[in-house]
Amino acid sequence: MELPIFLAFEVTDEDQGYPFAVAWSLPEGQYKSVLIKPEDEWLIDWESGQNAAGAPSVQDLKERGETVLDILKEWAEDFRHEEIYCEDPALAQFCLDMMYDAYGKELTAEVVPATAAFEEVDPFDLDDQRRVIMETEELTAVHAEDIARTYIHLYARINGITG
Fold it and tell me: Check: CATH 3.30.365.10 for 5-158?
């Protein structure tokens, strides 16, 4: 059984910032997580005081981050589904638009709420299971990698997938 693609971002500032980290699941149940090297035009109005708690410095992102173009190339191979499931679809769409617009490209997949992958499960039960997974796996709701991993575990648990 193939898992849906779950995608999560971390941003420097939700109002005027840019994405600095992204994680996504693969149909086989693995995930990828990378820091994003900011595009120069993203930094025009940026001030260091806007940095989200725990975000790497701009210098770290420039040195250790993957280029947006390299990430888009990787997504062209990894996003084989028509839908991408996100805990925060509005934030994900904002980040995706920013990244694709930087290179004049368009995302061909539709961004949908992560809960849509679990329509047969009561939302309260889903939230309880999500919290249990986060506690037992020592994951947080803040880091993109942890969010992607949580949804992989949750999907596997609900669908009886062992691995």
Answer: no
